[in-house]
Every structure is written in C-alpha cells, then in structure tokens.
Specification:
This protein has six helices and four strands, in the order H-E-H-E-H-E-H-E-H-H. By secondary structure, the chain is mainly alpha-helical. The chain has one domain (2-197): Rossmann fold (3-Layer(aba) Sandwich), CATH 3.40.50.620. The strands form two sheets. A two-stranded parallel ribbon has the order 1-2. Strands 3-4 form a two-stranded parallel sheet. Helix 2 links the parallel strand 1 and strand 2. Helix 1 (2-12) packs across helix 5 (154-164) and helix 5 packs across helix 6. The radius of gyration is 17 Å and the shape is globular.
Amino acid sequence: MDSFTLLHHALDQAYYVDCITFDYGQRHIKEIECARLICKENNLTNLSIEIANVESIFAKSALTSNDIEIPYGSYQAESMQTTIVPNRNMLFISHAIAYAISQNIDRVWYGAHAGDHFIYPDCRPEFLSAMNEVAQTCHTFPISVEAPFLNFTKAEIIKKGLELGIDYSKTWTCYEGQERACGQCGSCNERLEAFAINNSTDPLLYKN
C-alpha cells in the first residue's frame, strides 16, 4: 500500500518510473501478483527479482517461516518483533541501486514511513541517511536514496492516495497470503485504522 501510493505520487509528479518487486520467500507472496498487475495497468517496467537462497538468513521471521505464527494485534506489541526480516531493506536497496546505475537513473525511492520507525531499524531516518551516503559514492555518478513518506503516518499516506484518487482494492497488505485479508495481523490493523482516520472505507475484502 505504501509503495502503491508512492508510485502514484511519483507519476503525479511526472517522474519516469521503473518498478522493482522482490521475491524473498515471503508468505504473503500475493503482493507480488498485485505489483505485477498494477505495473501492467500503468504500462510500467516491473523488474521482478528473486533473492535466492536467503531462507536461512530470514528463517527467524514470521513473514518467511511457516514455523512461526503471524502475530495478531498492534505493532506496539512485543510479538511484532517476529515480523522483522533482518536487513531486508538494505538488500532491496542495494539491488535497486545496481539497477539504477545500469539504467542511468539517478534516484531510488522506497516506501518507509513514520509508523515503521518504532519496530523496523531499516525504515528509520538514520538508516536512510547512511544508505544515501553510500549510494552517493558507490559509482562514478551519485545515486540518491530517498523515502518521500519517511515522516508520514500511515493515515497521511492514505490521505495522499485518496487525494490522488487511487484504488486501494488493487493492493495487498496482509501478512497472510490468503484469498482475503485476515483483518487481525499488525499490517491489517494499521491499514484499517488509517482508513478509519480518514473517514473512508477500505475497499479490500476481509475474512470477517
């Protein structure tokens, strides 16, 4: 949902955009299909990258291991620590930087936001600053790593998307990759709360 809004924000600003989708063994692989369809509808390049043989690295995350239950409830809960995928964004961003260099693209955007700061280290301002500094010097021309929604709450991201008139029924947020969203995991709860704050109804289908 964050990346979907970020994409349309970029298109609204008339940026040239290429998209990258990552398959890292996530249980909610349905998000990859959503990304593919969104890019197809918008006639955008969607580079699908499979990060192979990382299961042992990510094995202790509920998002990649079937042996760990998806925690329900708020992101503030201690159980949500199991949804951390170690160093995921550094891996994603480094791949994106390499692609940007190959295509003479001068910036990489990702969808970190203020709501992620509490639990995910690779979504915090200091991480972004460090990655941007590295990207400025890793090649013969500088690449900027940016997170335009870094200081936005989830509700503010939804507000931006609603203003842009985008259809959130095309997105997938739930950590459980079932036919319908569970409505109970931290990601679903945060999403539903963001729509409620904006006095809007989430168009995604839920189990209950």
